[in-house]
Amino acid sequence: MPKTNLAGAGLSVILLAAIGITGAAAEPVLKGTEAFGDWQRDRPGTVRLITPQDLPKPGATASSSNSSRVVQRPASVVPQVPAGFKIELFASGLSGPRIIRTAPNGDIIVVETGPGRIRVLRGAGGAKGFANEIYATGLNRPFGVAFFPSGDNPQWLYVANTDSVVRFAYSNGDLKAQGKPETIVANLPHGYGHSTRDIVFTPDNKRMLVSVGSAGNAGEGLGQPPGGIEAWSRDHALGAAWGAETDRAAVLAFDPDGKNQKLFATGIRNCVGLAIQPGSGTPWCSTNERDGRGDNLVPDYVTRIREGAFYGWPWYYIGANEDPAHAGERPDLKDKVTVPDVLLQAHSASLGLTFYTGSSFPAEYRGDAFAAEHGSWNRSKRTGYKVIRIRLRDGVPTGEYEDFVTGFVLGDNEVWGRPVGVTVARDGALLVSEDGNGTIWRVSRD
User: Fold this and answer.
1) I need a labelling partner for 292 at 20 to 30 A (CA). Which of 7, 299, 384, 418 fits?
2) CA angle at 292 for the pair 288 and 295, rounded to the nearest 5°
3) Cα distance between residue 419 and residue 438, in whole Å
4) How far is residue 237's CA from residue 8's CA, in Å, rounded to a whole number?
5) Pairing of strands 5-6, 117-122
6) pLDDT of residue 11
7) Sheet hosting strand 301-304, strand order edge to edge
8) Any bridge partners for residue 102, and if so which?
9) What does the pLDDT look like over 356-403, one tens digit per residue?
């Protein structure tokens, strides 16, 4: 594995001031089919609005298998950001960095899922001093991490493995785990299908939310539940699935000690990124929807998550649109589907999610969200491979989103970066991880 480098503390950095990119305020909003687009139309400041009325019919285009080839980043290539911002290389040489989170003291927690470890970076924009340390190893495909309780002095660092939730005793500034992890949830649904698990705590520190993606693409082989649909619906949460999909395609709720498991929200195919909106305390999901329905179906989405709500999977999508593979199976759910807030270009693979809580970006960014789009494989014309800004007005999503960091695609077949994690550093910069070349980038005001 290449040596990991951290920008700052005498190490070289790559700086790029955004050049000639018009600010978002001057950009027209792309709507309808114009909003679908592909990577060639992506640039910082481009704004899109996709509504349920814009969706094509299933099969309007053939389903495509079009995986990207990840290549080494050319030395002259750096991501693009809007005018007034600059971007620099924060860290390199990482092994598939996925979720990144900012500790209360400014340290950056990096989850390297493949090697099963967590790393702590301290440097540019973080706490005083310089560090790049392996915090913990021996984890099982970790993804989400969260500090508990919330505030300036957490006592625990929770880690969502693919099959469990564990926690480490934690004190501000820890570069190494204080001991072995304590198992909090011993058995999350796992074994096949979506493997990422994210984790957050409600602001009152009374509930732990864990996202668990579906086992399959669109509920293949579900059949009938034990006792039939009517009995199942009476005894289980709205839209709860069964069999191999039991407690999957959902957000689960627990007490912080892992007890009292409940279904918080259902019908969410793969809520990869969880985040709590500051102020309101509302949980949000960054969601991968199903494949195989055509280039522009089904839109991925970023949305507020309401307790007890059902978001459609696998029987419906984006409201009362019935999935053709499940025609006539669940008429009882048709009028009970919650429509997501912000629809994204289909197959973008929306992953990490964070809210902007800093003060160094322009005032209009405060309270907005950023989401990392890992990039498509099931689309004839590539999309995703960028970081987007989710626009809010008075804390409520407008449905619009804006390309914020682009430039990870080199051509129709080659990419060098696949964004995964986003976090706001203590100095107000936005950090972005990508697992194609194992780097983290820092976006700040120019």
Assistant:
1) 418
2) 80
3) 10
4) 50
5) unpaired
6) 36
7) 271-276, 283-287, 301-304, 342-343
8) 108
9) 999 999 999 999 999 999 999 999 999 999 999 999 999 999 999 999
The neighbour count for residue 390, using CB atoms within 10 Å, is 25
For residues 367 and 361, give the distance between their C-alpha atoms in angstroms, rounded to a whole number: 11
Using CA atoms, how far residue 255 sits from 89, 156, 201, 208, in Å, is: 39, 14, 9, 6
CATH 1.25.40.10 fits 5-26+93-445, yes or no: no
- Per-residue tokens: 374: 């890992």
Q: Identify the sign of the CA torsion 242, 246, 249, 250.
A: positive
19 has pLDDT over 60: no
Q: In the predicted model, what is the mean pLDDT of residues 177-191?
A: 97
Task: Pick the closest to residue 164 from 137, 146, 182 (CA basis).
Answer: 182
> CB of 222 within 8 A of CB of 242?
yes
Q: Give the pLDDT band of residue 171 (cuts 50, 70, 90).
A: very high
Cβ burial of 182 (10 Å; 0-12, 13-18, 19+) is: middle
Who contacts 293 (Cβ-Cβ below 8 Å, separation ≥6)?
58, 59, 63, 323, 324
What whole-number distance in Å separates Cα of residue 107 and Cα of residue 165? Answer: 22
The pTM assigned to this predicted structure is: 0.94
Backbone angles phi, psi at 326, to 5 degrees: -130, 30
Q: Is the omega angle on the peptide bond into residue 115 within 30 degrees of 0, that is, cis?
A: no
Report yes or no: 108 and 119 within 8 Å, Cβ to Cβ.
Answer: no
Q: How far apart are CA 82 and CA 348, in angstroms?
A: 20
Across the chain, mean pLDDT equals: 93
pLDDT of the residue at 382: 97
